Amino acid sequence: MTPAPDARTQPGRRAASVEVVVIGGGVIGAAAAWQLARRGHDVLVLEKDELGHPRVTSHGATRIYRQSHTSPAQVELAVESLHRWRELEHETGAALLHLTGGIDHGDPVRTAAVAASLAAHGIRHQWLEPAEASRLWPGLRFDGPVLHQPDSAGRLRADQAVAALTAAAIGRGATVRHSTPVERVDVLDDDLAEITIPGGTIQARRVVLAAGAWTAGLIGDLVALPALRVTEEQPTIFRPVGATPCVVGDVRWPTLIHHIGPAQGWPASVYGIGVPGIGVKVAFRGTGPDWQPDVRDPRPEPAQLSRLQRYVEHYLPGLDATDPAPRSCTFVSTPDAGFLVDRTGPLVVAAGFSGHGFAVAPALGRMVADLSADAPTARTLSPAASR
């Protein structure tokens, strides 16, 4: 659907009055728009699809929130984002982040590193023996000690979070246009860029590129990007078996990170998160095939699904491994799994969030706002920041 022309998009008319254009209305773009608008900037968001469309990387019911990272930068982003998610809830009246508690288990070296990071940041945690953890969560099976974080992990309502960020940005004065694809971006000078959309062009002092899988195609050779790999991942929802206590009450299902992988015969580490009223979403991290934008095959990849079912049967006996409900989502990753938030001339790029930028989107939006307004901020997070 092509939007009706207005003062910003009439053919032949150059609209230099738009201060910041945000390309991409997913969670990062919406968070950036909210942060920019609340500082008083003139913001226009352009999103190629309608709100909540499955092609938007941020779609879906739930995402994990956690502070159990080994990178200080990632922990700091998570702590900041907890505060900012609460600000957003207060501003919009939406309930978005539910702290259910989280657990890490598996590889002892990796879990010990996570525990050391939690201790260094003063985040409450405790070690549980496998038998004790199994009593607390009888639907899970553990091979060794379990690192429990009772109040610093949980789940975000993903679709509602994007809607709330968008509403908050609009409430602060931003203009948001869905179903408005960007055809090209041109840099005119260090403080001016031009965006071409159906029906005309828009000029802006800053352009924020937060277009997920479409970012590299829009940027072309304007910015020297690291190689961004786009993969299609296959998180799958499994329903509980009978009345297993750990999944009957949604908040009693902890966020789950199982540090396991090829050395133990599995393709990658595993994450799990409760989906209220449905079951538990489980997935291997970052094992999907390469994916081309605008070409989404909704059919599940059978080999990956079969491996995931075997994992659930062994480690999550409280779930019915025989009744999977596969979903599809895209990961956009840099070669070193670092987050990319940087600026070149009038272009601010926010990309490569490796499947777990959603939880820290409010802090990333703040970083984008800082760069757009020439305020000092960390530009590119370290390679370990997203691990």
Automatic annotation (TrEMBL):
The keyword Oxidoreductase applies. Its EC number is 1.5.3.1. Residues 20-371 form the FAD dependent oxidoreductase domain. Keywords: FAD, Flavoprotein, Oxidoreductase. Its cofactor is FAD. Gene3D superfamilies: D-Amino Acid Oxidase, subunit A, domain 2, FAD/NAD(P)-binding domain. Pfam families: DAO. GO terms for molecular function: flavin adenine dinucleotide binding; sarcosine oxidase activity. The keyword Oxidoreductase applies. This is Sarcosine oxidase.
